Every structure is written in structure tokens, then in C-alpha cells.
């Protein structure tokens, strides 16, 4: 069956895209889904997050620009998460808007999900890696922080995706956005949550959110996920609940 393709995109940097890509993949793994993660950012944080050596024999440029048989970096024994590491030389100039879609369509492996970790950049008139990812995707997902800059970017992203849908006839859906690094029970967070919930974009806001938790940083430092270092901790629970909501939203779309 064709995998479901999910891109994680925001124009604002440092809001938790890479962390979410890694942990949504980890949650899907725990549900026995087979997942391919693509590091589509020249910062290569996803590859670093998994401690993949910089000289790994195959990377996203090979995937996009050659017919070499993919070699995936595997995440240890009995894991269902495979990775195409990033390249610091990845440039829009070498690509077309359909490049990633074509490469993903050619995958022979039987993945349930492909998750694409994108760089922080707005999608505008110039061809960007984010736009190329949108072209390949069934769904786009965005983490946000409870601050006005992060939130301002969401409206712009939704409208850029709608423009691509109208102008280029692509079938992508904006799955929604969720708060990350939440400091629960603060007026700051509850204020932003209700402001957004009551706004026109409110229908895209996930009920679940990810709390700020040092386990996330500890896991990153060790090249692991929170599921490995604290499987029953609150960060594990948060990502598990978020992933359940993602799956249920995807089911809703697919039944429409
Ligand atoms: N829920 C969380 N609790 C604690 N720290 C977090 C949490 N989410 C993310 N972080 C930390 O915030 C930093 C930025 O996260 P991350 O790299 O995932 O953001 P990003 O959106 O991918 O950044 P960029 O836009 O540069 O690609 C990292 O140090 C990460 O460990
Ligand atoms: Mg990142």
C-alpha cells in the first residue's frame, strides 16, 4: 500500500519540528507501523538526533538525484524506523517542485508512513525545500510555541498551502498545528490556547500538546528518543497522545 506522507513544516525556527518528527516516528513504531524519516534540512538535525555519521553512505541527495538503491540508516534492532540522512549540500536550485514526490513514489519498501523534516523557511514565490515537501505530501503538520511570532507563521503557512493547492492542483491537506514546549497551567499558555481555539484557524488546532520536559533534551543528547530513556514519562505520554490524534485526523480525512 502507498505510504501516507507527512511533512513537518513551520516558517519559524526552533519550535520543535525535528523533535516532533523523531517522536511521532517513535510513537508510530510503538504501534508497529513501519516509518521512513527523511531529513530534508541542510542543518541535518534529524540525522544528528539519531547520531548518524556525517559520512553515511547514502543521503537525501542520492535519494533525489540518483537511481542508486536506497540504503536506510536503521534505528537499532526490532525498530521500524528507517532514515534517509540529510545533506548540507541540498539546494532548491538542483531540484524541481516534483523531485521529492517522484523519489518517494519510486520507493520499493513497504512503509506505512513517510515523515519529512523540513527547514524553517516560509513558502513563498521562490521554490523552497518546504514547497518541494508539500508537493510530495498528503498531510502537513506544524508545531508551534505559545508566542505571537510562531502563531503569525501558521496563518501564512495555511494560506501558502491553499495557494499551492489552487494553482498546482496538489492534493495535500493541512492536518493541523499543536503547541510544543508548553508550560501548562500558566496564564500565558491558556491565554494563547483559547485565543487560537476561537480564531478562524481554531479548527486546525490539536487538542493534545507537548509539554516542556527536560527528558526531551536528555534524549536528544543521547541520540535516543524519550521512549527509550523514560518510556512511561510524561513526554512519552504526550507524544503518544499526539500521535493518536494525528492518526484519528488522518482517518477522518480518508473517510471523507
Ligand atoms: N517539548 C520539549 N521540551 C523540551 N525541549 C524541547 C521540546 N521540544 C523541543 N525542545 C528543544 O528545543 C530545541 C529546538 O527543537 P527542534 O530542533 O526540534 O526545533 P526545529 O523546529 O526542528 O528547529 P529548526 O527550525 O532549526 O529546524 C531543541 O534543543 C529541542 O531539544
Ligand atoms: Mg529542525
Please explain how this structure is put together.
With 256 residues, this protein is of the alpha/beta class. The chain has a single domain, classed as 3-Layer(aba) Sandwich (Rossmann fold), CATH 3.40.50.300. The chain contains 10 helices and 7 strands. The chain has a 7-stranded mixed beta sheet with strand order 3-4-2-5-1-6-7, sandwiched between helices. Helix 1 crosses helix 10 and helix 4 runs parallel beside helix 5. The two termini are 19 Å apart. Bound molecules: adenosine-5'-triphosphate and magnesium ion (MG). The site of adenosine-5'-triphosphate (ATP) has 19 residues, from helix 1 and helix 8.
The total domain count is: 1
Strand portion = 5-15%
Ligand roster:
adenosine-5'-triphosphate, magnesium ion
| Radius of gyration, whole Å | 17 Å
Order of helices and strands: EHEHHEEHEHEHEHHHH
CATH class category label: Alpha Beta
Termini, distance in Å?
Answer: 19 Å
Give a quick account of the main beta sheet: strands, pairing sense, barrel closure: 7 strands, mixed
In CATH terms, what is the architecture?
3-Layer(aba) Sandwich
